[in-house]
Amino acid sequence: MGVFAEDGTAVEWRGGHETVRIEPWTTDSLRVRGTIGQEIAAGLPGALLPADPVAAARIEIKRDLARIVNGQITAEITADGRLRFIRTSDGAGLLAEVTPHFAGPPQRLYAPAGRGGLHHTEVLFAARDGERFYGLGQHQHGKLDQKGAVIELVQRNTEVSIPFLLSSAGYGFLWNHPGIGRVELGTTGTRWVADAARQWDYWITAAHEPADIVRRYADVTGRAPMLPEWASGFWQCKLRYRTQDELLDVAREYHRRGLPLSVIVVDYFHWTKQGEWQFDPYEWPDPGGMVAELDRLGVKLMVSIWPTVNPSSENYAEMQDQGLLVASERGLGVHLPFWDKGSADPALLSYYDATSSRAREYIWSKVKEGYYKHGIRVWWLDACEPELRPQHPDNLRYHLGPGLEVGNIYPMLHAKAFHDGMTGEGETETVLLCRSAWAGSQRYGAAVWSGDIDSTFADLRRQIPAGLNIGLSGIPWWTTDIGGFKGGDINSSSFHELIIRWFQFGVFSPLCRLHGFRQPEATAGVDRTGAPLGADQTGAQNELWSFGPETYLILQRWLRLREHLRPYLMAAMRTAHTDGLPPMRPLFLNFPGDEPCWEIADQFLLGDDVLVAPVVTEGARERQVYLPSGADWRDAWTGRLVPRGRWLAALAPLETIPVYVRDGGSIEPFGDLDGFGAEA
Q: What is the model's pTM?
């Protein structure tokens, strides 16, 4: 049996060699940490901001039980060390540890995992029938409710690990550990696993409404800045514009046609070599002049930045000598074989170490000289998981610690490098398009896109729950490659239908960005995974007019609808900035008392007042739509009132999708799509 102690506003339990500490961490929330064979450590890497002062928690210690109460949440720990959490107001059980068998193992498991006091750690909680789980970052499994899933806690292209879970039972749970692991959301238990940790660490909050849980989570991990107004417009991108002239010709053509354009993007291989962070002057001879012309057109230039360093680059030796590269536990410090300028075969690339403040300052100094001085202020942080081939996080040694212990924090600290660099230059707006993120990335201006997905209706369908869950995980700025990244023949009628349906979804996404590696490709080669090869690749055209006149007629009208929506969208972005609520929301976030809203994975709300039902099946011209009972709804195209609290069969001709606006809300019905312009 263990013993209890009161330490200021915290409760500590010690039993055998184990220590558990429970303390208030902002409103209605607790932070819980535990370790074995050592003291609870402060200052380990994590997502939590320092706790705001709260009224003193109420602590009660008895011989066989200790209790700590902080607003709506109460924690109890027994003399044998078992934890449970209760909603204070009504005594409802929220979460409780469980011992899987009377003979063991215990509810918390520790096993040695290397040097320095690292342990493989597991924490096991009881399962509840009917409980649903949301959040956990962005995944491509196609599920909104993730009960029954096993989610790996590791960063990969298209898989964004953010270990925050929202439960339908009325609590939110952050596994505040940046290392590799998994969470098992089983029917017999919920198990959180860290492959290597000095201590386990989680934060839990209680609220009656799911929106309040999301607000509390934003309180402790940070809110996104206010999105700049220009970023709510249309972003044009492709793999890839090879030269300055090619990119400017595209921007000029958008202007000539009278098509709204906010951002145009320079993709990879514009550089001299990876790790030199500068334009190739042969292909991009006048970056400052390019930026100036785009400014006159009202267009921002975004540039792709990779965190990779080629051993033959001019900066590699200095970075290696100063310890600014990610190291390896075994073998050479090579993390990604990938093509580069001037190499016929893949170069053996290393990553700069984003967990080192000196390395972050170094990369910004190079980016400042290579790009910022030319007027570039918008950054595309690609491959920032970091992408590893092969996947061997156990072989990485970061400044902050072993890869298994800290690896998932890399994209968040990479974003911090650019946020801090921009802020240090006096900039007040930072927008970073990132392929990965961790808890807290949003506070550095990180937007996330869903990575290198396929150009298929199945992948389009998966993006809706992916976007909804990452929004619940604290990332309000989110988008996809409209049309998918890999594939998409611009001459195919099937792809024309896909690009229309995807664009319709993209218009109602938080960010609206057209991107992809289109076919037929002008240069040869893909690798065994289907990924494009070589620095000479460019892909087929991927502009609004690239898919034939009939498709263009539809797309340009939807683009003008996006412009119409921008004031409404910016109001939703203001809410994300002040309250932490994402603009793209599952129905239950606004209508938690309407049971079907917890299950619908292919509809969403944009802000409070627009309900969107994308069409995600090829050939479909009708779909079922559910309208929540907590509001009256009007068809966005006709203005007609429609029944609420029931399913209906909604027409969905190729030109439109079902969209509804809340009656009496902040936006009026749109009217007929034809009213948004004709072909230029």
A: 0.97
